[in-house]
Amino acid sequence: MQTYEIPLVPGPTSVPQEVLAAYYVDYGSADLEPEFLKLYADTQARLQQIVGTDNQIVLMTGEGMVALWGALKSTLQPGDRVLAVATGVFGYGIGDMARAVGAEVETVGFEYDQAATDLDRVEEAIRRFRPKMVTLVHCETPSGIMNPAAEVGALVREYDVPLYYVDAVSSMGGTPVQVDEWRVDLCLGGTQKVFSSLPDLGIVAVSERAWEAVEAVGYQGYDALAPFRTALADAYFPYTPNWHAVAGLHTACALLLDEGLEAAFTRHAEVAACCRERVLEMGLSLFPRDPATSAPTVTAVKVPEKVAWSQLDAALRRRGMVVGGSYGPLAGKVFRIGHMGIQADKDLLARGMDTLAQVLKELGIGG
Questions:
Q1: Helix, strand or coil for residue 138?
Q2: What is the C-alpha separation between 363 and 216, in angstroms, rounded?
Q3: pTM of the model
Q4: Under 8 Å CB-to-CB from 297, ≥6 apart: which residues?
Q5: Domain with CATH 3.90.1150.10 in the chain
Q6: Dihedrals φ, ψ of 295, to 5°?
Q7: Which residues pair with 104 in a beta bridge?
Q8: pLDDT digit string (tens) for 84-96?
Q9: Segments of the chain assigned E as strands
Q10: Residues 6+ apart with CB under 8 A from 127
Q11: Ranges in the chain annotated CATH 3.40.640.10
Q12: Residues 272 and 294: beta-carbon distance below 8 Å
């Protein structure tokens, strides 16, 4: 199996030894053991601190998409109105997911290289459409763009929208996420991004408004939120909990909190700034139209016109470096440098940027 000395993919990220060590322990029978219940509760508390909330945290076995789907299916019924604020692959995709659940969806759509900064458009749609739910992706990983979750949340509060659904999978832990302050009802995360753990848990911070919707909808299924409301108190989970995954996340949260959230946010911002400075020095172009909307966890770069993405990717891999391509309309047009979690490291980034510069020179590209 091929491994790489310079891993700069935008997830799943590299995993530190401290987190891996949490998996290599022989645990008991999960929900039958008091130790697991304490571990689960402690992990909830740490996540509450990281995302600024008093809301209950649900930990679902599965990759982050289990949380995205579960939150929609648990709170929407056919005919419910959903306003999807979309700026990229996942923003538009969440609208499609809501349609699949049977919702009536209106999309406030932006170009893939734009953030949702035209709040007048969002406000007009909320006022006219009167949705049950507004959805937004905080960090659009495929395009490297940050969206104004706080500002959209202010509109949700002003117009008393029942539910605000925010995908924070690629931002949670790497930049401020303030669930209660932003009035987020369903805040969605995953373990394989900034937490630098394995892709095996979906995270959902669930408000009381959202729990009321869960009860009214009554959805039952593997990805249902409903059983988790009392799972810890009853010591009865809907399926066998992944003790190893929760232990890994517990350790990942401890590493982040021991560093200090502000220090972690600063680290991500500084590494992102270094990355973009080096990219521009090479004569490459950032994908976001407005650099101020670039994410602190991932940098999206336009593939140079003189080379195919497959050629650039192969040349980087031969030198031990791996970055990410992109998806949908951006496939082959954009590549992404993931500097999140343990990969938000100036030395690692410097090695990566030196390698990228060498490869571009070999290919006759850049300055």
A1: coil
A2: 59
A3: 0.97
A4: 10, 139, 141, 170, 171, 174, 175, 193, 194, 268, 272, 338, 339, 340, 344
A5: 6-13+260-362
A6: -80, 150
A7: 81
A8: 999 999 999 999 9
A9: 6-7, 56-61, 81-86, 104-109, 133-137, 139-140, 145-146, 163-167, 186-190, 201-206, 298-302, 321-322, 334-338
A10: 159
A11: 17-258
A12: yes
Class of domain 17-258: alpha beta
Amino acid at 16: P
Instruction: Indicate if the alpha-carbon torsion angle 138, 141, 146, 147 is positive or negative.
Output: negative
Nearest-angstrom CA–CA distance, 213 and 21: 39
In one letter, which amino acid is 311? Answer: Q
Fold type of domain 6-13+260-362:
Aspartate Aminotransferase, domain 1 (3.90.1150)
- Tokens encoding 310: 């497959």
What average pLDDT score do residues 289-314 get? 97
Q: What is the pLDDT of residues 41-50, one digit of tens each?
A: 999 999 999 9
Q: Distance between CA 222 and CA 42 in Å, rounded?
A: 24
